[in-house]
Each structure stands twice: as C-alpha cells, then as structure tokens.
Design goal:
Elements: H1 2-6, H2 9-42, H3 45-92, H4 97-102, H5 105-147, H6 149-196, H7 198-203, H8 207-260, H9 265-306, E1 324-334, E2 337-343, E3 346-348, E4 352-356, H10 363-370, E5 378-383, E6 386-387, H11 393-397, E7 400-403, H12 414-419, H13 426-435, H14 439-443, H15 462-475, E8 480-484, H16 492-503, E9 509-513, H17 519-522, E10 527-532, E11 535-536
Parallel strand pairs: 4-9, 4-10, 7-8, 8-9
Antiparallel strand pairs: 1-2, 1-3, 1-5, 5-6, 10-11
The chain binds adenosine-5'-diphosphate and magnesium ion.
C-alpha cells in the first residue's frame, strides 16, 4: 500500500519546491517591510520609495506563486490517491476467491471509502504539511537570524515550549479519534447488512429492531463526535491563549531591545511577523505527527485484507481438458471439521454427473475442490495427470464455467452479459444462444441482443438467468460446467428443461450439484454420486 502511495513522491517534491519559493519570497517581503519602516522613520524618502516599489513588485509575483502552490499541492494529493486506489483494486482482484469470501465485504468497502479518506486527510496532507512547516520554519529562522540571533533563540525557546504544551493537551483527543474510527467501521458494516436484508426486515416486521439498533449506533458516533468537539474547543482556546502570550512576550522583548537601541523599529515588526512563521509550523508538527503515525496501522490493516494467506506457487498451465479429473484419496477439512474423507472419484471428459446428498453432507465443498477454490487437505486431484494444486488458477478458470443460483447480470446489453465483454462473431454468439436454449428469449426482446438489462435484470426470470450463465460458458468454450443448486429456486418444469439442455451438450463435461432429483432426467446422467458421511457412493 505504502509503495503505491509513494509513487506520488515526484509530485510532492514539485509541490514543496513551489512552496519553498513562495515561502522564501514571503520571508524576503518581511525584510522589505522592515527596511521600508526604518527608511520612513529615518526620513530617507529616496530609499523609502525605492524599497516600496520593489515591495509592490514582489507582492505581485507572490500571487501567481500562491496559486501555483495550491495547484501543485492538489496535484500531489490527487495523483497519490488515484495511484493507491488503483493499487487497492488491482490487489483485491488478485485475491483467491475463497479468501475473498472469507472476509466481510464491509472491510473492502470501508477501505475504499473511510480508510482512503483517512489516508488523504491524515497521511497525504500530513506529509505535505510536514514538509511545508519545515520550510516555513527554516525561512523564518533565517530571516530572524539576520536581524537578531538573540531574539531568534528566545523565540525558538518559547515556540518549542508551547508546542510541547499543545502536544500534551492533544493526547486525549487522539484516543477519542481512534475510537470514533472504530465506531465508523462498525457503522459501515451495519448499514451494509441492513440494506442487504431490506426484504427480510420488511417482510418480518423487523423495522423496530432495526430502528433501535440504528439509533444506538448513530447515537454512539454522534456522542463521540460531540466529545471530540468539546475537547477540541477547550484545546484550541488554550492554544490561542498560549500563542497570544508567546507572541506578546516576544513583542515586549523586542520592543525593549528597540528602546535600548540594539534593534530598529522595523526589526520589531519583522520579528513579530516571523514569530508566527516559527510558531505555527512547530504547533502544526505536533498535531500532524500523531496523525501520520495513526495511518500506519491503517496501511497494515489494508495490506492484511489484500493478502492471500495461501501463497503456494502454481507452475503449470492447462491449455485443454482432454481426459479426466481424478480424486486420489482426497480428504478435506475446514479447520478441525473434516467434511470429506479418502475420496476416490473420476470425472471423464464429456460425461454428465449428478451429485446429490443430504444438506451439509459436503456437496458444495466437493464442488469447491473441483473449482479449485480450495485444495485438498490430504490426497490429490489430478487433471489429465497434472496435480490441480500446481495448475495456475487463471489457466484452470479458462477451462471451466460456473452456474450459480444467483446469476449476476451487469447493467448492460444482453450481448455483453453473454460475451462478458470479449470479442466473438455473431455466428459464435448465436450458436451459444441456440445451445443454451435462449433463442426464443432473445427473439422476444424489443432490441434483440442489444436490449439493455437494468437493475441486475429484475424482469429476467430465474430460468433465463441460468441459461444466460450456460451461454456464457459455452461461448467461452468452457470444457466443464459446474452447477451448485443452480435450479433450486426454479419450478421443476423449468429446471428439468434446463437439465435436458445441459445433458444434450456434446463434448462438455457437466457436474451438477443438486439436492432435488427428477426421475425423468436422473437416468440420463452418466453417473450419480451420493455424498454423505464424508464419503461418496
Ligand atoms: P452441502 O453443500 O452438501 O449442503 P457443504 O459442503 O456446504 O454441504 O458443507 C459441508 C459441511 O462443511 C457443513 O457441516 C458446513 O457447516 C461446513 N462448511 C461449509 N463451508 C464452510 C466454511 N467456509 N467454513 C467452515 N465450515 C464450512
Ligand atoms: Mg451446498
């Protein structure tokens, strides 16, 4: 994560260079003001005029420089943020399917929203401000040193002391901020759950419970915000006070020195002007550092959620599926829970398999092994003699296709939903539609294949969805189609018709997991596996 963000460093350097130029000119401007005042008090009209004109020109140059400063600052933050978001999404899609599913989606959502906001506000802005504060401090330091080293050191002493004081004052605030961030994370995942369960909530009259939970969660966050605001108000009032006192103190010291004749009146103004230039950066740094450090744990959290814990290196490519998939003494456990034990089955190319068995018997698990979402805990699965564990996922996934109970449809044309954005000729597309039994459906659409699907296909029936998924597989030339309870929510007539379509696909291997069996189609399968008591019959 950090590496991705650091790709914005060239922009940071540019932004700080521009800032340094502006700050340098600013410092020079305060020297000019000192000279103007001193010449005026001396009654030296000639020099006063000369310095005043130069001062005006300087002020004119400062305007575009200030503009450039904020433009480059924005550029740096924008580029760094875009780079980190792209990195996050790229890494996310490198995750193994099973490991992605193990995590709560809210985590990814919150990473891309809340956490990225924090990265922007605390880290990117923080780094820039650190650089800028350092530059401002340096400029004021040099300017003041040129007038009176003594005042400079008194100034630094007072600034450092007050910065230390504000740092101590800010401690409780950090703790509350951290707690608020945790509350926000819980809030996001709660909102996501509630919106996802909208139907269940409405149908079961859970509105009151939701309202109560929601009220509590948002109240907690609001209350935390209130506490933070309250503490912030006290702290900033105190800071204001400390700052005023410090500046006043320095002012008195320099006026005293002016009366004694060791500095000029113009120097008093210069010192007061630059006192802020030293004071604010120091104060800023005490505010920024804890923020930058707090983002470190965010980076760790994000990196952790992106990491694949199983990093076994796959070395083999699989161009084609020619003969068979063979389970050799395969066992599989979720942690300590053994679900499948010493299985030996064989799946032959082009044949059709039905997998049945009691709920919780391990059918889906068996399918997940076949889909390479998981690897066996013991034993091995061979595909055309190659160990499936060693076959690269992308390479294997090209050969298989999955039909789920919930077929996802993109908000796009029927064509793109079938081709999944890859290039195929019309003949190929029509053939796949024909084989998947979708011809009548497509003919009935107002714009044929170019009809748009909205809202995840609200008005497309379950059976048509399954057929779209089958057409996707056929078009992509999948050698094996896996189905997990794909027809569970369809009425039995539609389910049987789709089954018949699948059974008629020549050369395509079909593995259909289902807990319902139809007499009419059962005998057409080459084999029926019954998965129960960890074994296959
Ligand atoms: P089926 O599809 O036959 O209903 P599953 O393969 O889904 O059965 O589940 C078999 C057993 O494995 C069940 O006891 C289930 O609780 C357990 N199981 C399934 N998925 C997981 C998982 N991701 N983590 C832990 N246990 C699981
Ligand atoms: Mg299942």
């Amino acid at each position: 994560m950090k590496k991705a963000i650091n790709r914005g460093i060239p922009y940071l350097i540019l932004a700080l260079l521009i800032f340094a130029m502006a700050a340098g000119l600013d410092g020079y401007m305060s020297i000019k003001i000192m000279r103007i005042v001193d010449h005026a008090l001396d009654g030296n009209m000639g020099l006063f005029k000369k310095e005043a004109i130069e001062g005006f020109i300087l002020a004119g140059i400062l305007l575009p420089l200030y503009l450039l400063t904020s433009i480059t600052r924005g550029l740096y933050i924008n580029r760094s943020l875009v780079k980190s978001k792209i990195y996050y999404i790229e890494s996310l899609f490198k995750k193994n399917i099973n490991e992605f599913q193990e995590e709560n989606n809210a985590k990814y959502l919150s990473a891309l929203t809340n956490d990225m906001n924090n990265v922007e506000q605390k880290y990117l802005v923080g780094i820039y401000e650190t650089g800028a504060s350092f530059i401002s401090f340096l400029v004021s330091f040099i300017v003041m040193a040129s007038v009176s080293p003594l005042v400079l050191f008194i100034g630094i002493g007072i600034s450092a002391l007050s910065a230390l004081l504000t740092m101590i004052l800010g401690k409780p605030l950090q703790r509350h901020e951290r707690q608020r961030s945790d509350l926000f994370e819980g809030y996001t995942s709660y909102i996501k759950e509630v919106l996802g369960a909208f139907q269940i909530i409405k149908a079961n009259n859970l509105n009151d419970k939701v309202k109560k939970d929601f009220f509590k969660k948002s109240k907690d966050i609001q209350y935390k915000g209130y506490i933070i605001d309250k503490i912030s108000t006290y702290i900033s009032a105190l800071q204001q006070f400390i700052m005023m006192m410090s500046i006043f103190l320095i002012f008195m010291i320099s006026v005293y020195m002016a009366i004694k004749g060791s500095i000029t009146a113009g120097a008093v103004i210069l010192i007061v002007n630059n006192m802020e230039g030293m004071f604010f950066p120091l104060m800023n740094l005490t505010d920024i550092f804890p923020k930058i450090i707090s983002v470190k744990s965010l980076f760790e959290k994000m990196d952790h959620s992106l990491k694949n814990h199983d990093d076994y290196e796959e070395t083999l490519d699989l161009d084609d599926f020619k003969h068979s998939i063979d389970f050799k003494n395969v066992s599989f456990s979720y942690d300590d829970n053994e679900v499948l034990q010493n299985m030996d089955i064989s799946i032959k190319k082009g044949e059709k398999y039905l997998i049945v068995g009691p709920s919780g018997g391990g059918k889906s698990t068996l399918l997940k092994l076949l889909r390479k979402y998981f690897n066996p805990t013991k034993g091995e699965i061979l595909i055309d003699g190659k160990n499936l564990r060693d076959v690269k996922k992308e390479s294997y996934f090209k050969n298989i296709s999955n039909v789920e109970q919930q077929v996802f449809l993109f908000e796009d044309t029927v064509r793109n939903n079938i081709t999944l954005y890859k290039d195929y000729s019309d003949e190929e597309i029509n053939l796949a539609i024909e084989r998947a039994g979708l011809s009548d459906f497509v003919k009935g659409l107002p714009n044929g294949l170019d009809t748009m699907i909205y809202d995840n296909g609200k008005n497309i029936s379950g059976g048509e969805r399954s057929r779209i998924a089958i057409a996707r597989g056929l078009l992509a030339n999948a050698k094996i189609i896996f189905l997990d309870e794909a027809f569970a929510s369809l009425d039995s007539k539609v389910a049987q018709e789709i089954e018949k379509t699948l059974l008629s696909l020549e050369g395509v291997t079909v593995v259909n997991v289902s807990h319902v069996i139809f007499k009419e189609t059962k005998d057409k399968y080459n084999k029926v596996f019954i998965v129960k008591n960890k074994a296959v019959v």
